[in-house]
Amino acid sequence: MKAKFSLFTSLLFSTLIHAQTTASRYTLFDNDWRFFRGGATGAEHIAFPDSSWRQVNLPHDWSIEDIPGTASPFSIGAISQVNGGFTVGGTGWYRKTFTVPAAQKGKRLFLQFDGIYMNADVYLNGKKLGSHPYGYTSFWFDITDRLKWNEKNVVSVRIRNEGENSRWYSGSGIYRHVWLASAEPVHVAPWGTSITTPDVTAAAARVTARTKVTNTKGGKVPVTLVTRLLNNKGIEAARFESKQTLDSGATYEFSQDLQVKAPQLWSPETPVLYTAVSEVLVAGQPADRLETPFGIRSISFDATNGFRLNGKTVKLKGGCVHHDNGPLGAKAYDRAEERRVELLKAAGYNAIRSSHNPPSPAFLDACDRLGMLVIDEAFDSWKGAKNPQDYHLYFEDWWQRDVESMIFRDRNHPSVIMWSTGNEIPNRDKPEVVAVSKMLTDYVHKLDPTRPVTCGVNGVGPDKDPFFATLDVGGYNYAPQMYKVDHERVPNRVVYGSESFPKKALEYWKGVEENSWVIGDFVWTAFDYIGEASIGWLGYPQRQYFFPWNLAYCGDIDICGWKRPQSFYRDAIWKPNQLSLFVKPLKPSFDTLSFKEPWSEWEFPDLVSSWNWKPLAGQGTASGSAAATAFNVLPAVPVVVYSSCEQVELFLNGKSLGKKATNRSNEYIAEWQVPFREGQLKAVGYNGKKQVNVAELKTAGAPAALKLTADRSTIKADGQDLSYVTVELVDDKGVRHPTAENLVQFEVEGGTIVGVGNANPRSTESFQLPQRKAWQGRALVIVQSKPNAGPIVLKAKAEGLKDASLAIAAK
Fold this sequence. Notes:
Structural class: mainly beta
Radius of gyration: 28 Å
Strand content: 35-45%
Helix content: 10-25%
Shape: globular
Number of helices: 10
Strand order of the largest sheet: 21-22-23-24-25-26-27-28
Number of strands: 44
Largest sheet: 8 strands, parallel, barrel
């Protein structure tokens, strides 16, 4: 770790345009767009007839929608192939008609896009505003001089997601929010606020606020900037006032020092957010006002103490996360982003690596609010190609602007603790690539000197030392064996496992716990995702005939938000008194190919939550006599328990099958061979003689009914909020049938179904139709509110089963 980063202290708050400002300045611009999938020559012109185009609300992703003429978003011939999960990109057009009242004339108007995938060309009233090739950074235009006041205006956006341009599912379209901003001629510049603290203690925090104010008026103006800091109860904690005369067309950066006494420090355990109020006055009259959530915390990194947050060493329990939201595709609804953070935090995570691109503003807002640390990552490629049409085509011309977008937008989030410039960059042992890494790091330091720079590096060895020397913290992809070796050679290097294999979770975590210079581990991946299809089963090398696989199948949590066995194993490693119970299936869950490379290790042991078994072919005879019935008994079933309890006792129908210790020496795993009998398999965890946890599996009868459970029974009536409803196929005693795959059909009143799923990695069913086959006895329905309050009623039915309904209140 470089000496200049031995102490990081910063008071950080969100500079997201929509989070930073009051609703009066920024207006959500998501509704009533027209969309056309394909080419549309002349669609940038204001008079272009678009009445036949489909009306959509944003966020929108056409790649998650059914391919025209089919009932599936997947195609074996898709250009994206295995990388993109066999989904289809192409060209699409969006148009929106709007009117700006003449009363707004004299103000400055801005149009901001939080994210478009990819190669966006934006037009206003037939004139091009500009282009933006990268699919993951936010951008904005000042549209004031192109507007027609009190008349019809048309913004048109052409998007081209063409060729092989991604190593995972990217989605296509305007998949994040769009905002229309209205500001007075003298205003705080977009992304113009940066706040740090040179000193943070329990007694006081010294705050340095730098705020850029722009004057677009025709002459000099006297400007006063008042910055007030409010605590989480709305009480003023600090105030500072500055004055400056601004020339016409000038931007001035105010620098203000404020003192906050006895600050409530932000951390994952106490994610306390303050509010910064920035008020701009011109000649004493109010001109601009911003309200911004922020958090006070200090960070530091060194090889002796590791990562310290507010002066305390914290080990990063991390996971890599791609940007898609499973059945929703790339659509970044605020609630979808928030739910992912909630689920990861509940699973024990305290840190996320946004691989391999900046996340949505809504995702970082949720991390701030819920208490999740973030490594904010810029790119997957630089000058060297990983795919023929990926970012390497644009790097030379755009890297600087995209780095600026990431840092200016995200630099004030308390959740963000490191900037990552990339991942597994090709030829990182070459001097020319080392030079690019140094260029990126130097520029990031210039823009934000308060956080370290990192990068995910594979093939770790001495030949990568020049590359690591350009970084502040080294990201080691799949290299726990190098932790001690490299420390002996480079003792001041701070490292973390930037990617790790799920099945080796304990090995990687030991490396974190036992070495002060290893600050954390980030599993690949925390959340499953579309694309890199079947790396968690068939692995590499990948081939077209992997189809119909479309999910990676390597995530701790699946695309519906349900924990997979590897997540329960991680519970046993990270948390006390954990207990989970699984069975190794008597035949593999999926077909297996034999050519997987030895280094391809993203698979996890094949385990299921089932106590429903039948004889395999050739193992039994027709029943009828007692002897035949006895002959028909299954062989022993392998049972696996993950536990951080001191001992586990296994019971079959109330009869003890013995106790076994579970601890680090046996990797928190206990196994039994259990002759199958219908009924109840139960594991009991003990610390000493005290029972501390129980897990059980029950034999399910034939499916008899549908059970619906919503993650939230009350949602906002804003046309954006979501409720995730789990659908279970249960027997007459309420036990979910672990192999049921019935087709379930849905109807909704008062809301909209925006996605369905079941987490089956080989299912090619539609994510959009109001139906879905169950998998492992479950399915998921995502219901969206409408802009008006009232009850939402979801109904579900399946042939031969009792119907079910569920009420959700939209307020």
